[in-house]
Amino acid sequence: MSEKKVALISGANKGIGLETGRQLGKLGYTILLGSRDALKGEVAARQLRGDGVDARVVKLDVVRQADIDAVAKLIASEFGKLDVLVNNAGAMIEKSWTKNSTSETKVADLRATFETNLFAVLALTQALLPLLKKSEAARIVNVSSILGSVSLQATKGSPTYDTKLFAYNSSKAALNVFTIHLAHELLGTKIKVNSAHPGWVHTDMGGSAAPMNVVDGAKTEVQLATLPEDGPTGGFFHLGKELAW
C-alpha cells in the first residue's frame, strides 16, 4: 500500500481539474489525472511533473464503465487505496446564460447532462469507495456550482436568479443531493463528502467574461480535499464559506 496520499481527479487535463492537481501535488500527493484523451492527459501530466509534482495520466472517460473499472483496478493494484476523489468532470450543453428556454429543453440534452454530471459521478464513486475506505481519512469532493442552489434559484434578486440553465442547474442540484445522502451514509467513518462551488472561473466552460482565474478556482476543491479530522461533511462550500442548498 502506498505511503503517500493518492488523489484521483476526473476531467483533469486542463482548467480547474489540472490546477487542482498542481496544488494538491505540491502538498505531496500523488496525482492521477483522469482524462478522456490519454494524449492530452499525458501532456498535462508532463506539465505537472515539470513543476515537481508526482503526476501520471489515467485514461478516464467518466461515462464509460469500462474506463471506470480499469481505473479502479489500476489504483487497487498499484496503490492499494485512494485518499482523495475529486469528481471534477462536468458538462454544460446550454449555450445562452441569459435566455430562459426551459420549455424548449430537449430531453436528450437533459439526459446527456445528467449522464456526466450525476450518473458518472455516482458510478465512479461507487467503484472507488472500497479503495477510499482503505484510506486513513479519505475525502470526496463533488464539484458542483452555485447554479445548483435551489434556494438561490428561487430567490428573486439573488446573484443567480436570472441564470436559468435548466439541464445544467438541475444536474448540479441533483449532485448536491447525492453529496448530502452519501455523507449521511458515511457518518461515523473517516470519509468526508462535500460539494464545491469553484466560482465563476475563466475556463472553456466559464468563458472569457469570468472574473476568477484557475488558481483561485481550484482553491475550494483543494480545501475540501485536505480537510482535517474535525472538518465538515455533507456541506456545500466556496472558499471556506458555506452556501445555501
UniProtKB/TrEMBL annotation:
Q: What is this protein's name?
A: Short-chain dehydrogenase/reductase SDR
**Source superkingdom:** Bacteria
What Pfam families does UniProt report for this protein, alphabetically? adh_short
Which UniProt keywords are present, listed alphabetically?
A: NADP, Oxidoreductase
Give the family this protein belongs to, as stated in its UniProt record: Belongs to the short-chain dehydrogenases/reductases (SDR) family.
InterPro entries to which the protein is assigned, alphabetical: CBR1-like, NAD(P)-bd_dom_sf, SDR_fam
CDD domains xref list:
carb_red_PTCR-like_SDR_c (cd05324)
Q: Which residues cross the membrane?
A: none
For this UniProt entry, the molecular function terms from Gene Ontology, in alphabetical order, are: oxidoreductase activity, acting on the CH-OH group of donors, NAD or NADP as acceptor
